[in-house]
Write a structure and sequence with these properties.
The protein has about 150 residues and is α/β, with parallel strands linked by helices. It has one domain: Rossmann fold (3-Layer(aba) Sandwich). It is built from six helices and seven strands; from the N terminus they run αβαβαββααβαββ. A seven-stranded mixed β-sheet has the order 3-2-1-4-5-7-6. Strand 1, helix 2 and strand 2 form a beta-alpha-beta unit. The protein starts with a helix and ends with a strand. About 40% of the residues are buried. Bound molecules: S-adenosylmethionine. The site of S-adenosylmethionine has 19 residues, from strand 2 and helix 4.
């Protein structure tokens, strides 16, 4: 089973029949997996150089967009996932977090997920005990309420 399919199963209650956004999607492998279960899937990146052909062919809306300045309206998404990208967005994290909280519905879930040590070491530094290992994925869940 593909790694991102396993992750989608882990997060299934926040993916199934939901409007999902993948931020800093790169290949958009997570979006491809999520599209099998979600109501709709959107994904964004600064460019499309890594976007996989599968992501182009699936029922996924990819847009070139800066996650720190999203074009989306307030409260558009049920769930946001940032997969293996935290290291690459770390310098902009406060702005991206604030944008994610703006475009997520209430209640909604924002997940930061890492499998690479580059991401996971930094996630542990930044989030401490809020970063929890599950089945080989380090997961931080940010809610739009108290965080
Ligand atoms: C490690 S890569 C791709 C991770 C992706 N989840 C994957 O599995 O392929 C990190 C990505 O973050 C994107 N990125 C960095 N800063 C960004 C920003 N402000 N807005 C959107 N994407 C950003 C980069 O363009 C790059 O594609």
């Amino acid at each position: 089973m593909k790694k991102t399919d396993i992750l989608v199963n882990l997060l299934a209650s926040d993916i199934e029949n939901k409007k999902v956004l993948e931020v800093a999607c790169g290949t958009a492998d997570f979006s491809v997996s999520a599209a099998k279960l979600a109501k709709s899937v959107f994904c964004i990146d600064l460019d499309d150089s890594r976007l996989s052909d599968q992501a182009k062919n699936n029922n996924i809306c990819f847009q070139i967009m800066d996650a720190a300045k999203m074009f989306y309206s307030d409260k558009e998404f049920d769930t946001i996932v940032i997969y293996n990208a935290f290291f690459h967005i770390q310098t902009q994290w406060k702005m991206i977090e604030s944008e994610c909280k703006r475009v997520i519905k209430s209640p909604g879930a924002i997940y930061i997920v890492g499998t690479w040590s580059l991401d996971t070491n930094l996630m542990i530094d930044v989030f401490g005990d809020r970063a929890v290992w599950k089945d080989g994925f380090l997961i931080v869940k940010v809610t739009n309420k108290s965080d």
